[in-house]
Amino acid sequence: MFRARIGAQAFTVVAMVAGGAYYGADREKRKELIKLEAQQRAEERNQKWLHELEVRDEEDKRLQAAMKRKRERLEQRRAEEQDSSHEPKMAAVSASTPTTAAAGANAEGKPSQEGTAGGSGVLGALSSAGGWFGRKKAPSEETKPDTEAEKK
């Protein structure tokens, strides 16, 4: 029995060494496979990131082009407004409406460049703000308080 037990222990030791050698090689293969998969994932992430950057670049270019078109249209409108404000026909139309002319606005309801004290800057916008939110008294309204004071 003792000899059989020693034989079984020897078989166990040999099985463990053989299994370790076999699974050691398998572990090495598995490690290589994991490294390859990690490299592939990193490459995929890199490709996705490059694609995302290209998409963002295209969006940025489209946005810049849209902003440029908007600026050009705005400059074109301003040029048209300046051209139309210099025409005598527009002056006659604004003179025929005393409330908008007194408020410092042109026929379109926008503040006129000529009626502002500060021009087209911030001060000009602030000085014309009173014309947008209030209106100047007409001559008939200014005399009404005087006539009421005389009656009393």
UniProtKB/TrEMBL annotation:
UniProt superkingdom: Eukaryota
Protein name: Uncharacterized protein
Organism name: Nemania bipapillata
